[in-house]
Amino acid sequence: MTDLHLPGVRVVRVTDPADERLGDYTRLTDVALRAKHEPEKGLYIAESSTVIRRALAAGHRPRSFLMAERWLADLAPEIEELPVDDAPGGTGEPVPVYVGEPDVLEAITGFHLHRGALAAVHRPPLPSVHDLVTGARDGAGARRVAVLEDIVDHTNVGAIFRSAAALGVDAVLVSPRCADPLYRRSVRVSMGTVFQVPWTRFETWPGGLAALQDDGFTVAALALSDDAVSLDELVADPPQRLALVLGTEGDGLSRGAVEAADQVVTIPMAGGVDSLNVAAASAVAFWATRTG
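Above: the chain sequence. Below: its structure as tokens.
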């Protein structure tokens, strides 16, 4: 490697895919590796210039960048504004930007890097559910939150976050076994809105729903049930604070989550269809319950 220094940017040319400094980006297509690697190291991978910009705008701290040289000018203004690594044990230097030819980058990541750039970013600490919902909206507290139970598909998680951002949901809360919103695919599908919508993870489930109720939320479980009310009925008399609970693909919500809810809500269906994909259902429910 040869280090090149541009004003405010530390550029490091990549020639050896096996260089140990590139370990954060190695074999990103290996799902099992990423699922283990990202939480343990306290990192997530931001993919594409748009997503990286949104991560930086949210105050997230990158450890490094990886990109083809032609994308460097596009991100240079944001990178130049980053502080040096002055954390305990840090290098005291600007965040490194690893630059390489497309074939070298593909050998590192396991796929063709055509979306501009990657960044390895330090994960911010997650707040408690109580702290999040009582201060998620300009200090006044959240009024409408989404709760995701055990959703395993990262694409669905990302799509739900994108709908939450677009339709004014104040926060997203995920169960202990729900897929990681900061997994690379979730971040990409969400177009970086996982950095825009406040979120955190329950420590207990479904017991955490009782804490939401203690904070003044009406918990509405989206599920099929003989005693369910329609989404139209919920919207006609909306609670002051609403938590919409969405269940895992296929099986839907667990019995424990449904029993812990204040009411069960269904989206009226036609054409012999009994339910929607969870991401589609979330968008419908968010739109119907929007407050402004």
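DSSP finds eleven helices and 13 strands in the chain.
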